[in-house]
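User: structure tokens for this one?
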Amino acid sequence: MKKTPSPANVCPECDHQFRGNGFDGIDAHWRAKHESLMPYRVAWPLIQSGTYRRKTGSIEDFCGSLAQEGGPKFTIAQIKKITEDAWAGKR
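Assistant:
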């Protein structure tokens, strides 16, 4: 599902609306609230271009495979790779 680009003053991760001009203050906001999801230096070009895809609440991207009893078992390295690919829009 393709997400409609957010207005030019709303954080695409948490929908925080910035006051002032466009994304003024997003660098401090991102570093304080979302740096653990993706480094600001990586996120900003995506946000600026309107191609950032929300990370939180995206469990449906994994289709419940981690919850299936007797289902696939993933190593930490595999989970990290799957997550990075999902963030990059790879399927």
